[in-house]
Amino acid sequence: MALIVGMLSVVRPLLCTWAGLPDAAFWWKERATCCKVRARRFGSQRQLVVVEPSSTAGVAVLKLKNLPVNSFSLEFLTELIINLEKLENDKTFRGIIITSDCPKAFSAGVDLREICGKNPAHYTEYWKVLQDLWLRLYLSNLVLISAINGPCAAGGCLIPLTSDYRILADNPKCLIGLNETRLGISAPFWFKDPLVNIIGHRASEHALQLGLLFPPAEALQVGIVDKVVPKDQVQSTALSVMTQWLAIPDHARQLTKNMIRKPTADLLVKHRDTDIQNFVSFISRDSIQKSLQMYLAKLKQNKD
Ligand SMILES: *[C@@H]1O[C@H](CO)[C@@H](O)[C@H](O)[C@H]1NC(C)=O
């Protein structure tokens, strides 16, 4: 929480109009105001996160829209956290379906431009915000369902791994997994822990060390996703699964979720400063910066 407060200096212009939200209509009107404020602040009209009410009462659809592949820029992460926080505090919502509004990917994870060629203070801020997002998602009182309609690699798995349920589109391009080791880096323990909680120790050992990316059938078999459906049914399936989850009284479900997840979340809360220090000193190494630069250059070349 302290870190969210720390972030407020950055995001205060976005938050100022968001205090106290008596009803949904008011919210949507305020959102429009916020967008103008943000547009001024970031000098763009882009809206990176779109929140819409769904056809089911109490369920919001949150669409990730940081083109082209929803990589986690600092601006995108900040906007995501603000939207989640607002949904969390809005009593009209009990569940969120998170999906991508980018045709090419669900999420590509960490934006390498945020961790390459910048200074330690920037890396520190970036990693804190990423941890904040993880904590907000992992301990959310809402039911979170990931409707994974595109590839989802490395840090892109953050949202699915912290959700309550994962639905993957049945398309060979829709690979999912933590492939960090292939880039010569290791996934942080707070990515490893939820993976272990979901697919078990041995399967995690295997998947993490080899940096495996699972196509849909294998993803289902190993249990990193709960359901695989044709791409055009991802959204409707998410809504019908959500209805099952919402049939359970919130209070009992929330207590149970917290009971199961708190020990894992506490590890991050307790070790987050050390984790930041480790990350910053690792990423600042010349050898790592060099390999990131080479990887970025390769990505750029492929694009041209
Ligand atoms: C991880 O997987 C994604 C999706 O296939 C791919 O774009 C990315 O290049 C991979 N990263 C590494 C380092 O292999």
Report on the architecture of this protein.
The chain is an alpha/beta fold and 304 residues long. The chain has one domain (46-303): 2-enoyl-CoA Hydratase, Chain A, domain 1. Helix content is 55%, strand content 13%. The chain has helices spanning 2-15, 24-42, 74-89, 120-138, 158-162, 189-199, 201-210, 216-222, 234-246, 250-283, 286-303; strands at 49-53, 59-64, 71-72, 95-100, 109-110, 143-148, 152-153, 165-169, 176-177, 227-229. The strands form 3 sheets. It has a 6-stranded mixed beta sheet, with helices on both faces. A two-stranded parallel sheet has the order 3-5. A hairpin with a 5-residue loop joins strand 1 and strand 2 (59-64). Helix 3 runs parallel beside helix 4 (120-138). The longest helix is centred in the C-terminal third of the chain and has 34 residues, at 250-283. The protein is globular, with a radius of gyration of 19 Å. The relative contact order is 0.11. It binds 2-acetamido-2-deoxy-beta-D-glucopyranose. Residues 151, 153-154, 175, 179, 182-183, 213 line the site of 2-acetamido-2-deoxy-beta-D-glucopyranose.
Helical run tally: 11
- Mean pLDDT, all residues: 88
Structural class category: alpha/beta
Annotated CATH architecture: Alpha-Beta Complex
Instruction: Pick out the low-confidence regions.
Output: 1-43
Q: Evaluate the radius of gyration.
A: 19 Å
